[in-house]
Amino acid sequence: MGSTDRSLPFQIKEAPVDGHRPMKVRVIGAGYSGIYLGIRIPQRLRNIDLQIYERNESVGGTWWVNKYPGCACDIPAHSYQYSFNPNPDWSAFYAPQKEIWAYLHGTAEKFGVLRFVKLQHEVKSCRWDDNRKKWILTIHRIDTNQTFEDDADVLIAARGNLSDPAWPDVPGLQSFGGEIMHSSRWNENYDFKNKRIGVIGNGSSAIQIVPSLQKVEGAQLSCFVRSGTWITNPFGDDVMRKLGLDPSILEFTPEQRQEFVNDPEKFFKFRKLIIAEGNTEHEVSLRESEIQKGAVGIFRAAMTERLVKKPEIAEFLIPSFAIGCRRATPGPGYLEALTESNVDFITDPIESVTTSGVVLKSGRSIPLDVLCCATGFNASRAPPFSIYGRGDVSLQTRFTPYPCAYLSLAVDGFPNFFIMLGPNSAIGAGSLSVILENEGDYIVKCIRKLQKEDYASMSVKPERFRDWDEYCGEYHKRTVYSDICHSWYKSEGGSGNRVTGIWPGSTLHALETLRAPRWEDYDWEVVEGNGENRLRWLGNGWSITHSKVDGSDELGGDPAWYIEPRFLDVPPQGRPEDDEGLKMRPFSH
């Protein structure tokens, strides 16, 4: 037996076992992730001082800042929503930006998130104080131009990968004398009529911008494209056929939307078929898989047919790399717009930008009135504000030469710090929003353990961080994401060899991985003053459920809660192993 000597005499903690100590949690960002945390933290935890800092004028994240024409989700909207708040009233298969923002704002209102949100509050720096076991934040209030400090026991970065705009690295960009805008910094008041418009890029944003601007009266477009990209058939087209819908008609009629409202069973079936199809397409991400080979043939033929008026565009645009190496998108109307007479498809690289337009490497000058930069985001970098962990090591340093986080959530040396949709969080097929929800659930479980068991800090072990890093690198050797292409899925601004954007597995693989935290993968520090007895958190032998609240006669819960039908897990008679609910999900539930 070990020694029972203690440096401090043990004293019972005079609190019930479930009386969780007060903690401060600060969340950076009020988009999809921040809103989810603003729902689940107050629902599932107690004694939490929660604040969500958002630098913009509204919640909604990327769906607030991106307001370019044609902005919409490029996956079925019915699989891009909170699982607990499905929307039967999307106007289109690919819902437009304004509807998605309204859905997010409405969800935040419906579930009480806005009371925790501080708008126009920009986080400038975060630093871990190892003596106090707290994060020290510097906040700039944009509307009053005031700067102040805050502290937190737990810090969560919920700003997402697609929030820091990447401008094209072209000489003379700032010298342009006309209007210049980024897809995420769109000037909604600019009149594009009768203008010479330059669009740089052919990623997801450009693919939506070009069809919209091509239709503007008198507009002349110059599309500057440096690489190929796959334009796919609409995701979920097979599902639409199964349900008797025409996959070429992406808008829902008022009658169809009302039917979804009136018939919840039909709406659920529609949602489930779309989600199931997305989750069963994982094989397309594997190199040389039969589904990948078949898709290449199908989409090459479809792109060639849609570009038949200008076959030279097809020759350049249809890639040699696998489908999925670069984010594939259905791009309704994009290829057709490229073949119109008022669109010039330019593959010659831009040499420089002048006051009146651009100069190509061939020497050709293109006069422009407006330059639209659809050049994406700095997805493979640390956040654009300083975050310092133990030993004053910055996250920027740890994210060099490429970003990595254990299970996409945590970095060793950064205690009580979590990232929502961090490195390797995105998914090639399936629902991103359900991964987001499960990441949030994982973080809530971590906060609860810190709070309930009187731990001052938790930090992922360096060896587990390295194991995850090694796993991601080795896994992606078998996927199309490591093929040769320029993609925000990759390190070094999209040109590196490391896949940093995509989860190493399927959506369902991610859900099972995140289901239950492996506490042994973390190092723990106890709250100062608790002594060496790690079970002091057991408290004074009471539970809140049979304790009186603040000296009143009211109890803190239901002392017989465990026989309530909602909490019962009734097994099937005779053969408990035939529990249908448990057969539907991983058996390691």
The low-confidence runs, each spanning 5 or more residues with pLDDT under 50, are 1-5
Distance between the termini: 36 Å
Q: Quaternary status of these chains?
A: single chain
Main β-sheet, in a few words? 5 strands, parallel
Q: Strand percentage, roughly? A: 15-25%
Spatial strand arrangement across the major sheet: 3-2-1-7-17
The secondary structure category is alpha/beta
**Principal-axes shape call:** globular
Rg calculated over all Cα atoms: 26 Å
Which range best describes the helical content: under 10%, 10-25%, 25-40%, 40-55%, 55-70% or over 70%?
25-40%
Number of strands: 19
Q: Kindly state the mean pLDDT as a whole number?
A: 93
Number of helices: 15
Could you characterize the architecture of this molecule?
- This protein has 589 residues and is α/β, with parallel strands linked by helices.
- It is built from 15 helices and 19 strands.
- It has helices spanning 32-44, 62-65, 97-110, 204-214, 237-242, 254-262, 264-279, 290-306, 311-317, 334-338, 395-398, 432-452, 462-475, 507-514, 580-584; strands at 23-28, 48-54, 117-119, 121-129, 134-141, 146-152, 154-157, 179-182, 196-200, 220-224, 343-346, 350-353, 357-360, 365-367, 370-373, 386-388, 417-419, 455-460, 522-526.
- The strands form five sheets. The protein has a five-stranded parallel beta sheet, covered by helices on one side.
- Helix 1 links the parallel strand 1 (23-28) and strand 2.
- Helix 6 packs across helix 7 and helix 12 packs parallel to helix 14 (507-514).
- It is globular.
- It starts with 22 loop residues before the first strand and ends in a 5-residue tail after the last helix.
